[in-house]
Amino acid sequence: MKSAALCAQLLLSLFAPSLFAADWSYAVRPGDTLSEIAHHYLKHPGDWARLQVLNEVKDPRRLTPGEKLRIPVDWLRQGAAMATAIHVRGDVVRVLAGAEQPLRAGDRLSVGEELRTGADSNASLRFFDGSRLLIAANSRITLARMKQYGNTGMADTAIRLHEGKLDSRVSRQQSPAARYRIESQALNLGVRGTEFRFGVAPNGPAHAEVLSGRVLAAGARGGAVVGLDAGYGTVSRADGGPSSARALAPPPRLAGLPDRVEHLPLRFSWAAGEGITRWRAQVFSEASDDILLLDDTFTEPSAKWPDLPDGRYRLRVHAVADDGLEGRNAEHVFVLAARPEAPLALAPAEGRAIRAQSVMLRWARPQGVSGFRLQLADSPKFDPLLVDESELSDVEYPVQVHEGEYYWRLASIADDGRQGPFSLAHRFSHVPPPSSPALEEPALEDDALQLRWPAGEPGQTFRLQLSPDAGFSSVLVNEQLSAPIFRLEREFLGRSVFVRVQTIDSDGVVGPYSAPQQIEVPSSLPAWPLLFVPLILAL
């Protein structure tokens, strides 16, 4: 009961400041006087006498350094505070009194302004007290209250989230007068120094997740107060109060992700947690959490983005529950060094088997590139290297190869001499051309002489040539055959001819001719069976 009463009292102090007047504590500095302090901080500088009475100060001109003075918040000078846009990405507009204009980094924002972010857009704001607000894509907020207490550094800030998602990092508030609140149609949050996320779905529930510190949550229509510590969250609908505190899903395990990425598109994968079906992945500049560059939700435990400039970044990933409650963050710092991009390999085709011993490697020329580096190896680890040329200016390079597999890769060299990353390895192989078929002894079938040789591999064809001389200076027959057989016609009766055959692969690669063999063709068919053996002479 005491805990609930304390939460209720604290919530009232956050959302109803007029009910809880408080004192601000000022630490005296060397040389301070009450009149100077009053002139610097109070609405009415003449109230220094009241300040003297309240703090029982004997000499208003001689204060002890380090002494704490009580100053009622109601006495402090108050005024309208401003917010500053410190980072803007994509389509973000500000609306005041119905007038729209694009939001730019450095713009100053006043109370009452509305901000809208489009798809793939976001903005980061800094408030008077140093608190930060990151407005995600497809969000709409109103700066409902921004008040500052003179030169104290204290601020009273209220933001209305109509739809979308926010990430807040709230500066530590030392006085009850300093407040930071986010309101929505379903859920209101009050905080003093914390880091949390807040989201409102269109016509749906609101959800809040606390990453550090403590947050008090209440329904927009009042009701129960829920205290949320770090690692807990709540979900609330407009027609009901916040759910009891729920533990956030644990952070995904990002172990094994590369520290250096050299190829685009950008890809990351992680282990899927039990029961998790959605993840939110974001990429920030390593220099600042205010600079959000990529932000998407994925239904597989992986993220993919087409492009990003070279630089140092922080990947942030967390699970997303079915009701929208988002889990604890996992982060991984990486360097993207993908430029200048490696050339596109043109030839030989990936994985192609090549018969020729001389192979011409060819590639495209990216813009802004003055040269290339080429490496060739017979191992995918590129150790040892058979070729390592680092000063190539042309887009082709001949290499001599022997039977086996080969791997090659390319890197671009920019005009300033800077070498980019190597491409992924490309592979080709050298295989010997098809062997020449061995002619069998001719056979007499259907009163004709048939020449045969062993069948080849699937898809292979054959070329047969007949010539009157062993040098094949003139060719009597030149035929491409789909089967390993040829019928010698009657026109060759009584003649001496030479025959040779070659194999042609399905990809058009031609093997060597067989050694020429001589056939003495008898002048009459009945004599053929008697002349089979002596008529074939291997030269």
TrEMBL record:
Q: Record's SUPFAM superfamilies?
A: LysM domain
Q: Does the keyword Signal apply?
A: yes
| PROSITE patterns (UniProt xref) | FN3, LYSM
Q: What Pfam families does the database record attribute to this sequence?
A: FecR (PF04773), LysM (PF01476)
**What keywords is this UniProt entry annotated with?**
Signal
Residues making up the signal peptide according to the UniProt record: 1-21
Residues annotated as domain Fibronectin type-III: 433-524
Q: Which residues form a coiled coil?
A: none
- Gene3D superfamilies referenced in this protein's UniProt entry, alphabetically: 2.60.120.1440, Immunoglobulins, LysM domain
Q: Which residues form the LysM domain?
A: 24-71
- Source superkingdom: Bacteria
User: What is the official name of this protein in its record?
Assistant: LysM domain-containing protein
* Record has Signal as a keyword: yes
